[in-house]
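The following block was generated as part of the benchmark described in Methods. Ligand: nicotinamide-adenine-dinucleotide.
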Amino acid sequence: MRYALIGCGRISVNHIQAALNNNLEIVGLCDLIPERVNEKKEKFPLVKDVPLYTDYVKMLEEVKPTLVAIATESGEHAKIAKECIRHKVNVIIEKPISLALSDAREIINLANEYHVKVCACHQNRFNKAIQKIRLALEDGKFGRIFHATANIRWNRDKSYYEQAKWRGTWEQDGGALMNQCIHNIDLLRWMLGDVEEVFAYTDNLNHDYIAAEDLGVALVKFKNGSYGIIEGTTNIYPKNLEETLYIFGEKGTVKAGGSSVNKLEVWRFEGEDEESVLKENSEVHQNVYGLGHTPLYKDMIEAINEDRTPYVSGEDGYKALELVLAIYLSKKTHSKVTLPLSESVKSTDFKGLFKEE
Ligand SMILES: NC(=O)c1ccc[n+]([C@@H]2O[C@H](COP(=O)([O-])OP(=O)(O)OC[C@H]3O[C@@H](n4cnc5c(N)ncnc54)[C@H](O)[C@@H]3O)[C@@H](O)[C@H]2O)c1
């Protein structure tokens, strides 16, 4: 399958590796900054002869990929995704799939119209620990779920934001919830289902050089009657501490932890040997982005070949985005927010929330 990548920055190595691991034919690499592509060619000798583009529309027209991954700054995802879809190209879109609900909806609708697949890159769904929990949930092993918690306790310092000026802006990114915590917010919502109401606080306590939040705390009421607590921050001293997902059910208690929900740390179900399950369902990885891009790509390739919905669909990307925006809206209005949100809600609605812009 012919594959191209748009955006060759920090996360692009995971995409190139996933494409190689899945034997995709890499036919184009695109970045506005050619050195970014050249750095990746040096790192991955297998792509050294792949054509380099700075104009993604030209690339789409010349190399005619079947599948494209979009790994540019978040505020650019929607425009690029819509262009790819209009060229009848299937897309893997890095999270968040866009920063405006109307754009996310348009991406999903256009993909239906042009008969292509959209996958939102929430790769942590494929972590061994998360898959183990998900299968238990699908088998009904928890019984009724009472509540669940998702937290991300990471550190992002000035040097991280200085690497790329778009980070932490309302136009191109959002803050700790939209950028870092959205993976775990996706997991919580995926496990517990659709959300009814949200009440939240967000703040910027320690990053006066960015516009968006560095802390978010939210209470979530799900339609099935269970509750969730979300805590996401980039303020943890002095380095990344953990990303955890706990689920508390009538007949089961579980925790995925580690730096990015990569270790199963608690597994309590009657008659099960906790120690051996924990051992079998933990992964070690080099960075917090984990090992999930490769299985996510594998699923997307199969979804295209089998003409089915990808495991992490555009609709899943929409719902994760909607929950983050609901948290922002609750902070802004200092009130409980009911879902579904109006499709007019977007990240730039929150400009000036923490400092004058
Ligand atoms: N899934 C994950 O775990 C994960 C991890 C990190 C980042 N991300 C997401 O990936 C995206 C990129 O993040 P990053 O940290 O790699 O950013 P980055 O700034 O390091 O890289 C983005 C690249 O996109 C390029 N670009 C921008 N507009 C372009 C265009 N029109 N055509 C071609 N190239 C263009 C930029 O020049 C830059 O090199 C963001 O949406 C981010 O939220 C996801």
